[in-house]
Every structure is written in structure tokens, then in C-alpha cells.
Amino acid sequence: MKISRRDLVKVGLAAGAALSIPSVLRAQTASSAARTVHMVVGDLSVFDPIWTTSGPTQMHGLAIYDMLFAPDSKFMPQPQMVEKWNVSGDKKMYTFQLRDGLGWHDGTPVTAADCVASIRRWAEVNPGGQLIMARASDISKKDDKTFTIALKEPLGLLVDLLADVLAAPGLFIMREKDASRPASEQVTTKIGSGPFKFNEALARPGASYTYERNEKYLPRKEPSDGLAGGKIVRVDRVIWNVIADQQTAVAALQAGEIDYYETPPADLYPLIESDPNLQLDVLDKGGRDLVLRMNFLQPPFDNVKARQAMLHLIDQEAVLRAVRSDEKYISPVTSIFGQDTLLSNDENTGWYKKGGDPERAKQLFQDAGYAGEKIIIIDPTDWVDGDNLSQLLAASLRKIGINAELAPMTWAALSTRRANKGPVENGGWNVFLTDESEYSLSHPLTQASRTANGDKAWYGWPKNDEYEALRAKLADVATLDERKALARQMQGIWWDFVGDVRLGKYTTPIARRKALTGLIHMPELLPMWNMQKASA
After folding, report:
1. pTM of structure
2. d(CA 260, CA 282)
């Protein structure tokens, strides 16, 4: 019998898993039943989905909290916690009534006061919420189940803005005493009213986090549709296992010790596809854009010339080859609204050059007055693509004489450090890499990364008043053609002041055991309801 190299790799991975999987995971998998799902989705250091836009934290929020409205599979807003609502004849007064049966995990009822406090806190940091507050004259409780939003002028997108949980941070409803905390301060309690409860006693920071089915949760009667409809939980427990090593995670998936792996390494796709028990699945069909964010508050990127240098430095083809070898998963990006959305356009994209233009980048750094100061790239070592690209970026900068230094850390640590606005000597930063779904990029009113309002903007804190004035107009235009025209103007300005840098678009499949079914296909977030697991 001939043994292929792939077979040897597979055997080696499985054998390595038995030795390297944490003992807590081995104990859990030995005793787990068919109604327990094990997932690898990333570590959690922050549990407040308003304080950070980090993916694992947003997914945690989706599990334990509920929402007033939620997008269906066609991204249309549907009522969730809300039973009914109405709008006054002048379109300036919205009245919302909560549905029956809403209760917190601590046994107390959800009230309108909780909703009002949650909207106000969310609106401190979400661009859509900021727009609502700019138009609102009052948001207040009417009775225990009813609240109102009074507007100074009509805002036809109000319900859409409340519903867009895919544009992090989403509007997750918290208890009034939690939501009364400023958005700049983390909520550390984990009590929501959603379909899952966080099991504090079983939490093992850095190793695993456990979610239990909320037996008292009352789903809506409508069928599940996207993030809307009835949130039916079909398992008793979901455990997030933290496995930083990708080969160990794949081996655990093969061995049946985990059921779902969010970011399998691209070089092991063939191995996964060859296993009759495993499947690759693309949940976000639109794909994701790789993004470079620069700190506008600190040198050298407080100077527009240095930011323009980064735009010319990037070789998108080299970047994409570093993350995916198969061309069906990758493509260049030149639009700030993604490459394949309704708002994508080619305005002011003359900077794009296949292979980049390092000599132009070097000259622009000189024009910016760069004098050899250290540039800190915060490097997420447990996100393999991000780690590889951070190293590639550092090497590219060094080639043109820039003093680039990597600061290795987990994504969870990066999610905290990127909030530091101070200089690098005080724990600040200059550059970090991330990615975001193309879906979110087509919604600049709610997508935090499309803002340029300084201290209120997303990490990096870009500022450009002319761009922001155009973005604000999107709330009032009536047609798609008008939106497209504004998007072209916005992009023309963005590429002049360089709010961020696009690195390319890629598609990332998740890996799962075929016994795990019912996954909901949506961008950004994976709901844990609706999934089910066949008996072994």
C-alpha cells in the first residue's frame, strides 16, 4: 500500500494533536455529548461589544444579548425585541413597544429604560448612532414596555441604523445599570437577555469559554432568516476553545475534538477537503478586504505625505500571494467601498500600480520629514495571515530605510492596545492590520472604518471635515444614483488624505465537521443558534 505525503501529514497532525491539545480540551471532548459544540473562533479578553469592534467580542455579544431589530438574509431590518412600532405623520416621532417574555439572565425583566440607556451608550461610538443623536431631540421611556425617539428632522433610515448589527459595534441591549457606563469604560458583567448565557464558572481565560442554552429565552415565532426571526437554540452548550496553533486546531477538527474552526490555514485546505468528515464553507460570500490602519495622532503618520507613502509602498499582489495561493480566493482592491459593492468606484485610483512603487514611497517619507524614528507595527501572532503580513510590511519598510519594529501580541491584546491614543513610548502604536467584510464597506453611514471625524472615528482616528460633510449627506439622498455620486466624491477625498490603505480582497472559508449543520451564512458574525450536531 502506497502512503502519500498528504496521508503522512494527516497522521502526523492527528498524532500531534493528542499530545499538544490542552488537557482541559481533552477532558471536555471526552465527556461531551452530541448537544455540545466545540468551536475555535479566537480568544476573548474584552466582553463588552460596545467598547470594541473585535470580531470575537461581537460574536459574544450576539450570543448573550438581544437586539431591537436585526437584519434578515437580504439585509432588511426586521423586529426582534420590538413587538410593534409606529411613526408620526410628520416622520419625527417613533414609538417602540417591546414584545412579551423578555427577561435578563438574572431573572429580572427587560424594560424600556434598558433600551434607552443602551441606545445612548451605543450612539457614543457607532456612526449610525451618532447620526441618530445628531437628529434626535429626545430618547425616553414612556412606560416599562414603550420608549420613543423624537427627531428634530426626519430620518428615514432610523430603523435601518438600529438594525445594522453587522456594522460593529452593533446595538446590543444591556441592562440599564450596565449601559449607564460611558462607552469608553468596559462593561465587565456578562448578563444579557439573549438565547445563550455565559457560564462564568467554566470560563478558563486563554483556554476556553462556555455558553449555555438560555432555557427561559422566548424566540420569535417567525422562521430563522439571517440574524432575524426565531433564535432557536438546538444544542445545550457551546464551548469556545482557544487553540493558537493552526496545525493543532486542524488536527483537533479531524479527531472530532472540535466541530468548527473559523480560520483554517490556506495551505491545509487540500487536506481538509480530502477528509470525508470535514467541509470548507464560505459563510461570507462577499469576501473581506485586508486593511492597513495608521495612527493619525502620532508621528510620522500625522503627516499626510507619510500616509501617502504607505499607499504607494504596498504591493497588493505580493500581499495576496502571502495569504492565498489560489487565485479564486483573491483580487486587488482600489475602492474604499470594496471591490464588488453597489458603491465601488474608480475615483482617484491613479496611485495603484501593480507591484507598488517603493521609490515613490521613499521620496514621500523624505518629503514628510521622516528622520529615522521608530514605527511600531502591532503584530497579531495568533492571526496567521495578519502575522505574516505584518512581517511583510516591516520588511518592505526596512527596504526603503524606515525603522520599522514589530510588537508581537495576541489579537485580544491588540484589540486593547489599539485604543491607546498615546505615543509609542507610552504603549501607543503606529500601524496595525485588520480585515473587514465588503458588506460593511457598502454602508458608510454605519461602518466605523469609513468615518473621518477625528477622536470619534475608528482606531487610527482619521480626520477630514470635507469627507465627513459628504458622508452626512448620504442620510438624506433618495436614490442609488445619488448615493453613488456621493461615494465617488468621498473616495476622491479619502485617497488624498489617505484614511487607510487597502491591501487586497480575499475570501476565507471556515472548516467544520459535516456532523455540524444549520450554520447561518452572514457576513462578519456567526450566530450560534440554529446550529445542530448529529450524534457520533
Report:
1. 0.81
2. 13
Distance of alpha carbon 371 from alpha carbon 140, whole angstroms:
54
Q: Which amino acid is at 114?
A: D
Average pLDDT over residues 359-364: 98
CA neighbor of 337 nearest in space, from 485, 473, 464: 485
- Can you tell me the mean pLDDT for 254-272? 94
**What residue spans of 125-220 are helical by DSSP H?**
127-135, 158-163, 176-179
Helix (H, G, I), strand (E, B) or coil at 79: strand
What single-letter DSSP state applies at residue 196?
E
The x, y and z cell numbers of residue 63, run together, are: 450570543
Q: Map residue 147 onto helix, strand or coil.
A: strand
Kindly report, residue by residue over 270-302, the tens digit of the pLDDT: 999 999 999 999 998 889 999 999 999 999 999
Residue whose C-alpha is closest to residue 173's, from 236, 221, 110, 95: 110
CA 146/CA 139 separation, integer angstroms: 11
Cβ pair 511, 279 in contact under 8 A: yes
Rounded CA separation 303/301 (Å): 5
Instruction: Count how many residues are written for the chain.
Output: 536
Name the strand (E) or helix (H) holding 485: helix 480-497
Q: Which of 132, 129, 144, 146 is nearest to 83 (CA)?
A: 146
Calpha distance 319→330 (Å, rounded): 10
Using pLDDT thresholds of 50, 70 and 90, give the confidence band for residue 340: confident
Asked whether the beta carbons of 441 and 341 are under 8 A apart, the reply is yes
Q: Residues 192-240: pLDDT tens digits?
A: 999 999 999 999 999 999 999 999 999 999 999 999 999 999 999 999 9
Buried b (16+ CB within 10 A) or exposed e, 347-373: bbeebbeeebbbebbbebbeebebeee
Spatial CB neighbours of 325, under 8 Å, sequence gap ≥ 6: 266, 267
Q: Which amino acid is at 39?
A: M
- Listed residue (219, 226, 198) closest to 210, CA to CA: 198
Place of cell 489560489: 326
- Other beta carbons within 10 angstroms of residue 308's beta carbon come to 22
Which residue from 7, 18, 32, 19 is spatially nearest to 533, judged by alpha carbons? 32
Cβ atoms 500, 291 nearer than 8 A = yes
